C-alpha cells in the first residue's frame, strides 16, 4: 500500500477489519479505507466511528457506482454472501482497481453450490465457489494471481454432506492489468491454478 491510495472494503460491516488492523499496521499517509455495505449497516458504521473518534482514513458507502476510484478492493469473508459474481462487482466500480484481495473465502476443489449458514440470529444463503469458477472470474477481469494461501483456522462443515464440507478457507491476491485494449492478450490467470 502506498500514500494516496484507496481501499474499498466490500461488506466491511462497521469496519471490523480496519479497526483490528490499525492495532498492528501503520497505513501510509494519506490513505483512504472505504467501507461498503448495505444501508442499515453503513448507518451503524457511521455511528460506531463517531462514537470511537473516527480517524481520517475511514469513509463509508452504500453504492459502489458512486464510490471514487480505488486502488484496492478487499473481500474478507464477504464474497460468499452475495449473488453477484466477482467480475460483476468489479464492473460496477467507476474505475478499475489495481489489486483485488480475497480472504476467508470457502472454495471447493470441484463443485460450486449454495448451502445455508446458521449465524444464530438468522439463517443465510452461503455460496461456495469452485476453484475453476473463481479462476474463470479472474480471467474475465484479465487478472493475475500473485499470491494465495489457506485460512487453516476456518472450516465449513456441512452436516450429512462430507464431500461438500471444507477443511479450510482460501485467500488470494490478484493484480489486474491496467485498462487498455486487451483483445489480443491471453488471460494471465491460467498460469496459477488456485490450490484449495
UniProtKB/TrEMBL annotation:
It comes from the Bacteria. InterPro entries: Put_MTase_LIC12133 (IPR027612), SAM-dependent_MTases_sf (IPR029063). NCBIfam families: MTase_LIC12133 (TIGR04325). This is Methyltransferase, TIGR04325 family.
Amino acid at each position: 500500500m502506498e500514500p494516496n491510495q484507496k481501499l474499498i472494503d466490500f461488506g466491511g460491516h462497521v469496519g471490523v477489519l480496519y479497526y483490528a488492523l490499525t492495532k498492528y499496521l501503520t497505513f501510509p499517509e494519506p490513505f483512504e479505507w472505504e467501507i461498503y455495505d448495505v444501508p442499515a449497516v453503513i448507518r451503524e458504521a457511521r455511528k460506531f466511528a463517531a462514537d470511537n473518534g473516527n480517524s481520517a482514513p475511514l469513509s463509508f458507502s452504500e453504492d459502489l457506482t458512486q464510490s471514487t476510484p480505488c486502488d484496492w478492493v478487499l473481500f474478507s469473508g464477504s464474497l460468499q454472501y452475495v449473488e453477484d459474481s466477482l467480475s460483476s462487482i468489479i464492473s460496477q466500480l467507476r474505475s478499475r482497481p489495481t489489486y483485488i484481495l480475497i480472504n476467508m473465502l470457502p472454495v471447493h476443489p470441484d463443485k460450486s453450490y449454495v448451502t445455508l449458514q446458521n449465524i444464530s440470529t438468522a439463517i443465510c444463503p452461503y455460496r461456495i465457489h469452485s476453484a475453476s469458477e473463481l479462476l474463470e472470474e479472474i480471467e474475465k477481469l484479465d487478472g493475475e494471481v500473485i499470491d494465495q494461501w489457506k485460512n487453516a483456522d476456518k472450516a465449513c462443515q456441512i452436516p450429512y454432506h462430507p464431500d461438500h464440507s471444507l477443511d479450510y478457507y482460501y485467500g488470494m491476491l490478484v493484480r489486474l492489468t491496467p485498462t487498455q485494449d486487451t483483445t489480443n492478450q491471453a488471460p494471465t490467470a491460467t498460469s496459477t491454478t488456485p490450490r484449495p
